Amino acid sequence: MKAKTPYHHGDLKEALLAAAESVLDDSGLHGFTLRESARRAGVSHAAPKHHFGDVRGLLTEVAARGFQQLTRRLKTKLRAAGDDLDAQFVATAEAYVGFAEAHPEHFRIMFRSDLVDMQSPSLMSAALATFTEMTNVIRRQRGEPEIGAESLDACMTSAQLINDILIGWSHIHGYAHLKLEGQLAMIPKAAQKDMLATAGRRLARLVRS
Amino acid sequence: MKAKTPYHHGDLKEALLAAAESVLDDSGLHGFTLRESARRAGVSHAAPKHHFGDVRGLLTEVAARGFQQLTRRLKTKLRAAGDDLDAQFVATAEAYVGFAEAHPEHFRIMFRSDLVDMQSPSLMSAALATFTEMTNVIRRQRGEPEIGAESLDACMTSAQLINDILIGWSHIHGYAHLKLEGQLAMIPKAAQKDMLATAGRRLARLVRS
DNA sequence: CTCTAAACTTGACATCGACAAGATAAAATG
DNA sequence: CATTTTATCTTGTCGATGTCAAGTTTAGAG
């Protein structure tokens, strides 16, 4: 009977995060509520307060986990891409867009500064990890050694590097976002087919030039 | 006394849209409610139903008006830019990013397929007008004649054209969105300064190549 | 002038996020 | 081991929201 419904959940924080993600998958951001998340975790409607404060706190952690997933995806794809420079760009784009398509609601929340506390340490460090991964793609392109997240700030002095990062990231993010929000409807599906590959090659050429 | 509070508002639809936009400017998407919009328009809480159905209907019209504003901004900036190709790209980027910064909440809503009915005729035609404006920038780059919104579909056959549009639009949109959502915090402000101009030139070169 | 349909109001309901106060159990303390 | 503290979770409540149903007012057609 103790195993049935112990007063103390044990790992409620984790359970609530998982529940929140399942709500998002099922009902989207629109159907997402604190109370529904609590319901799925099998606790009372006010239980989340102790762990996350308010709905913003919960969503912030959800967003952080999104960046962690994205980072993992990037690492996997990049490892598979090998040393080819074009392939690295394509892999980055595929990982990014792939994540957005696989977890649209999750992706949305990661870029909603009105819903989430972008200053939160856990969110910032998760986002920084993703950013570092993409920065290293550019650095490899430029024949520079990879860096860790801790020394990112120090590298943000080269105007050329920053420009390349911004061009690459903006493009990939923009494409992912436009596609996710149904803005590419007027463009024939067939043309979007190898869009990622073509864009990857062109971006690579741009950065190399 | 009749002029004070006539039972029939006269142009409630317009008044509600204006009220909704003022709510968004003041309190953001988070503070936006149907009832508050009705309050500011001076009508009862259920009045919007007759004109917009539900909150989604209202936001859809708000989004459509956003695209109309963006189109106007693009036209103005492009006219000022003259015939120089680089300048046209820079102008497009400035208009786009400028709008996002001037009306962040409005901009957000335009790309929220979960909040808005992207199939709505008025929204679709407004978005199409914006898209046409940007397509014509590319077409001028390529020395092709400008087209109207009605003949857009017919032009979406050239893979090269589509690719150029996607690269340009994705980049500008991605940059605007990332900046709006505070994701460029780790990049020094100084470096972002002439980001738009540099990117414009590089994109122009890319499209020309 | 009458009547009908559009435009708006009033009232109600379920649900939400947040808060306060209480209950329970784990952990620290003695 | 006994006790006290503290973290964790529950119950109850509040104002506010979106939506619906039913009633009220007015414009405009016939």
List keywords for this structure.
homodimer, 209 residues, globular, DNA-binding
Largest interface: A-B, 51 and 51 residues
Q: Let me know the largest β-sheet of chain A.
A: none
Count of helices of chain A? 11
Class of secondary structure makeup of chain A: mainly alpha
Principal-axes geometry of chain A comes out as globular
Low-confidence stretches of chain A: none
Q: If you average the pLDDT of chain A, what whole number results?
A: 91
Please give the oligomerization state of what you see.
homodimer
Radius of gyration of chain A: 20 Å
Q: How many extended strands of chain A?
A: 0
Q: Proportion of β residues of chain A?
A: under 5%
Helix content of chain A: over 70%
Description:
2 copies of one chain form a homodimer. With 209 residues, chain A is an all-alpha fold. The longest helix of chain A has 27 residues, at 55-81. The first copy, chain A, is globular and about 60 Å long. In chain A, helix 5 (85-102) crosses helix 11. The first copy, chain A, is built from 11 helices and no strands. The first copy, chain A, has helices at residues 12-31, 34-41, 48-52, 55-81, 85-102, 104-110, 121-141, 152-155, 159-180, 189-193, 195-208. At the A-B interface, helix 1, helix 7, helix 9 and helix 11 of A face helix 1, helix 7, helix 9 and helix 11 of B. Chain B binds a DNA duplex (30 and 30 nucleotides) through helix 2 and helix 3.
